[in-house]
Design brief:
alpha/beta, Rossmann fold, 2 domains, 7-stranded mixed β-sheet, 12 helices
């Protein structure tokens, strides 16, 4: 081999290495040693109990991966921004994460309107939205290759619950009490779809503002309509007050059913909530859980953060773990395209909390659509059924 041939060969090899390095450098949020995720959430507002715990869950899972050496030599980093559960602040937080921090993807961002407000800008620059803490259908519809959502929507949950109560418990007069918000209207739509499918009509509806304090009038209206099942498009306080109001008034021949938005430690532990129903996605993180993996998670979380986890911590941990699966599946050459393919390769994923099996594919962005029925018994949520469909 001539000297010129050797020099030429070395030059080609050097150029190839340079091109590979340049290609790697073009993937935002990815270096040879690190992958940077972003998370906009509520650390100071009305949903801070979810925002703080879910961000802890994300950090906990990423720390476990990093302590074990990372993925293909890369450690996982998350930059968390407080949006106070306010759309304007969420837009500011997203702009920082996108333009200044140049994150690879968002993981477990909180809130329906906050996610919706950020989609346009983040998708324009290729930032995936991974497993938001919102069960609105807009988290996976319309189809967008950068959207991934892992569980049943509010509509799915409500449809499963109504189907169970009508077919199993013989309920005939289904009513709906809902927040006059996008969230509440999704629950209403789920009830409308399922009652129509079952050939029955919704007997009555009432709407309220999230800030309303007195529910005597709507409870009286629903009772007068003869409701035997009230589907709740509510969250925490506006679930507790109407339910206890009805029971104190002696209205006991009616069941109340909420979406996963009511499946919360605070709701379960509140005085007077015995017999209240909600749709669950995973086991509740109780310290005395009979599920060994859940019990260990609770112990590890409390040791790490010096506080008990709530359901938000579970959702954050699962979101981070699903993101981890995508990074692993992408291989050493982590790019946006390889990551999308890595996410689409997730099949029959099971979390440590007895959640539903999650699978994605080239055109599948909702990983599961089943949920189970849970009931408050002795101040705790107790699972009543296996995962339900509709």
């Amino acid at each position: 081999m001539s000297k010129w041939t050797i020099v030429k060969t070395m030059a080609v090899a050097t150029a190839a290495v340079s091109l590979a390095g340049a290609a790697s450098a073009q993937t935002r949020g990815v270096t040879a040693s690190e992958v940077t995720f972003g998370m906009h959430t509520d650390l100071s507002g009305v949903a801070a109990t979810y925002g703080v715990s879910s961000s802890n869950g994300v950090k906990m899972r990423f720390d476990e991966i990093n302590d074990a050496g990372g993925i293909n030599g890369r450690k996982l980093k998350v930059i968390i921004e407080d949006q106070g559960y306010q759309v304007p602040k969420a837009v500011q937080a997203c702009n920082k994460l996108i333009n200044r921090d140049k994150v690879f993807a968002f993981v477990a961002p909180l809130g329906t309107p906050m996610n919706n407000a950020c989609f346009k800008d983040q998708f324009a620059v290729g930032v995936p939205n991974l497993f938001p803490l919102s069960a609105a259908r807009s988290m996976y519809e319309p189809y967008e290759r950068l959207k991934f959502y892992g569980a049943a929507s509010y509509v799915d949950q409500v449809r499963s619950g109504i189907d169970y109560f009508v077919k199993t418990k013989g309920k005939k007069a289904v009513c709906v009490m809902y927040q006059d918000t996008d969230f509440g209207k999704e629950v209403l739509e789920g009830a409308e779809l399922q009652t129509k499918k079952l050939g029955i009509k919704i007997a009555e509806t009432t709407a309220h503002k999230p800030t309303d304090q007195d529910f005597t009038a709507p409870i009286t209206k629903l009772r007068s309509a003869g409701c035997d099942l009230i589907v709740m498009g509510t969250i925490v306080r506006d679930s507790i007050v109407p339910y206890t109001t009805a029971r104190k008034a002696g209205w006991t021949d009616v069941d109340f059913l909420g979406s996963a938005a009511v499946y919360d430690l605070v709701v379960g532990a509140a005085q007077g909530m015995e017999g209240f129903y909600g749709m669950g996605l995973t086991e509740m993180p109780y310290v005395d859980s009979n599920v060994a993996s859940v019990k260990k998670f609770v112990e590890d979380y409390k040791k790490k953060f010096n506080v008990d986890p709530n359901i938000g911590a579970v959702y954050g941990y699962v979101a981070a773990d699903l993101a981890v699966q995508g990074v692993k599946n992408a291989g050493k050459d982590l790019t946006l395209d390889s990551f999308i393919k890595g996410m689409e390769a997730i099949k029959n994923y099971k979390d440590i909390f007895n959640g539903p099996q999650v699978s994605f594919g080239p055109n599948i962005r909702q990983g599961a659509n089943s949920s189970f029925l849970a009931e408050v018994k002795n101040g705790k949520w107790t699972r009543v059924t296996e995962p339900l469909g509709f």
